[in-house]
Design goal:
It is a single chain. The chain is an alpha/beta fold. The chain has two domains: about 180 residues, Rossmann fold; about 140 residues, Rossmann fold. Helices cover about 30% and strands about 25% of the residues. The protein is built from ten helices and 15 strands. The protein has a nine-stranded mixed sheet, sandwiched between helices. A six-stranded mixed sheet has the order 12-11-10-15-14-13, with helices on both faces.
Length: about 350
């Protein structure tokens, strides 16, 4: 299969999440610098990445070891896209292993603050002092560099603390620049964004809301939208944006599975009404769910049992569409030609 071509550069940064506790922090730091960032799971497709047309890519850290058979990975065509890449911690080790370097278990690991000595500033460390305090959290280490990579910084316990490949425009850090414990961490990220990726600092939350609302208006037109509400951040923000765009043509549905905290359905409904002005339509499906889950212990079977949620939505749709005809199309389900349902991926 041919590599998908990138669209004209949009200037955002794509973050491939390998399960790091700091991934959201990376995204926050980038957005604080005025550049939009999107987080993709390591299980996302290469096509999803290409559709973002990123100006640069960051590979996050993660709790796994690159030495494990089941270690997270990503499509290696990422290195053929021609955009700058920054690997952090696990992301660094994954890059090193791909290009033929050797990753091994460290004797004692490197955790907490340590002193970093910069021996080749490059554009990544431009404008920084030659010695920094940085934050580490890793058990594995790159013991042998991949071909054509050079060391640009080291610590007392890690001779390859930062490396780069100028020709491929790849930079790797064993420490975490996104945490406040790392001195000048924001400057390091800013150098990657503006000196290496040439991203534009033209994003702010206000413009994001306006653009999202306008996009929803264009896509929905005069149709109505059914939205599955969980009470979590993702679906609540989605509801707020859609409601701002189309008002009462939004039909939010909350399903009580019988597995909620006491009075949780009522609390969520009241919070949405009072804070966002959105009326939620609650459906009690506790009997159906609990019946399906009776005597089921296997997690996979439990997950399949929860597909009953679609039938609950089907019943609810009779209020807005007389003859529902399901056609599954990620990330929404289309019902006839007039009604669209936006469903959280984990819900359906």
């Amino acid at each position: 299969m041919k590599n998908p071509k990138l669209l004209p550069e949009k200037g955002s940064i794509a973050i491939i999440d390998f399960g790091s506790q700091y991934t959201q922090l990376i995204a926050r730091r980038i957005r604080d610098l005025g550049v939009f960032s999107t987080i993709l799971s390591w299980e996302s497709s290469f096509q999803e990445l290409c559709e973002l047309s990123p100006a640069g890519i960051i590979l996050s850290g993660g709790p796994s070891s690159i030495l494990e058979e089941s270690a997270p990975t990503f499509d290696h065509r990422i290195f053929e896209l021609g955009v700058p890449i920054l690997g952090i911690c696990y992301g660094y080790q994954w890059i090193a292993a791909h290009f033929g370097g050797k990753v091994e278990k460290g004797e004692q690991g490197e955790y907490g603050r340590t002193s970093l000595s910069i021996i080749n500033p490059t554009r990544l460390f431009e404008g920084l002092p030659s010695h920094l305090t940085v934050w580490n959290s890793h058990g594995d280490r790159v013991s042998v560099l991949p071909e054509d990579f050079e060391v640009i910084a080291f610590t007392a316990d890690e001779p390859h603390a930062a490396i780069f490949n100028l020709k491929k425009n790849i930079y790797c850090l064993q420490f975490h620049p996104e945490v406040t414990h790392t001195e000048h961490g924001e400057k390091i990220l800013a150098n990657f964004l503006f000196e290496i990726c040439h991203a534009k600092a033209n994003w702010n939350l206000g413009s994001f809301i306006e653009e999202s609302v306008e996009e929803i208006k264009r896509k929905v037109g005069k149709e109505r939208v059914i939205l599955g509400i969980s009470g979590g951040v993702d679906s609540s923000v989605t509801a707020a944006l859609i409601h701002k765009a189309i008002g009462e043509r939004l039909y939010p549905i909350f399903v009580d599975t019988g597995l909620l905290r006491k009075n949780e359905a009522q609390i969520i409904s009241e919070l949405m009404r009072r804070n966002l002005g959105i009326k939620i339509h609650c459906f009690d499906a506790s009997k159906e769910f609990l019946t399906k889950l009776r005597n089921v212990a296997d997690p996979e079977k439990k997950g399949r049992s929860l597909a009953i949620c679609l039938f609950v939505f089907s019943n609810a749709l009779h209020k807005v569409s007389e003859k529902p005809n399901f056609l599954r199309k990620e990330p929404y389900i289309r019902i006839s030609s007039k009604v669209r349902i936006l469903v959280e991926k984990g819900l359906a």
